[in-house]
Design a protein that fits this description.
This protein is mostly beta strands. Helices cover 5% and strands 32% of the residues. The chain is built from 1 helix and 11 strands; from the N terminus they run βββββββββαββ. The strands form 3 sheets. It has a 5-stranded antiparallel beta sheet, with no helix packed on it. The longest helix is centred in the C-terminal third of the chain and has 9 residues. The chain is globular and about 50 Å long.
């Protein structure tokens, strides 16, 4: 279809792949699970991939938001401390049903166990202490999505990382969940 100039369009993309990689279960894949696990004490990191190829090069991205449904905590009903969550661009391709803490594709390891990603976070969100699950968390990823659309950066997806040690273990809905799946 032809889009008139000067008109904004809203697109919601679901992930084409998502999984989490877990240091304690470094050879296991969780790509078919209904949740994504994020933790630092028992280190686990969610990976998400969105297909942005349908957005024509040269289009201006005025707003791109990663939305994740914070389903529950592994233990407890509220976060006990404030938590910083970093979202990074992954720098290597990976496959949903093959990625583990050690490997990104069967037979091909990450350069660094735990995933290859840019050192500087694309965006950061701080959850205050006493945050109760059952809410959507939103992360502004506009500059990165613009780079993907413009071909400046290869779209290998996103990885979530807790940068400081914490005993909190967060669970988010994955694309396999019955409702409230991740969105971009």
């Amino acid at each position: 279809p032809r889009f008139p100039p000067g008109v904004d369009y809203l697109f919601t993309l679901g992930p084409v792949a998502d999984t989490d990689i877990d240091k304690n279960l470094s050879n296991f894949n969780f790509g078919a699970e209904p949740d994504l696990y994020l933790s630092k004490g028992v280190e686990a990191r969610p990976l998400l991939q969105f297909d942005t190829t349908g957005i024509a090069a040269g289009k201006t991205i005025t707003k791109a938001t990663l939305r994740l449904y914070f389903l529950r905590l592994f233990t407890g009903t509220q976060t006990s401390t404030s938590l910083v969550i970093n979202v990074h661009a992954t720098t290597k391709t990976w496959k949903e049903l093959e990625a583990t803490w050690r490997r990104r594709i069967s037979g091909t390891n990450w350069t660094t166990a735990g995933g290859d990603y840019l050192a500087t976070a694309t965006t950061t969100k701080t959850l205050p202490a006493n945050t109760t699950p059952g809410i959507w968390l939103e992360f502004d990823v506009t500059p990165l999505v613009q780079e993907w659309v413009d071909g400046v950066t290869v779209n290998n997806g996103l990885i979530l990382v807790l940068p400081t040690t914490s005993s909190e273990e967060l669970m988010f809905n994955s694309r396999e969940a019955a409702t409230d799946r991740p969105e971009l």
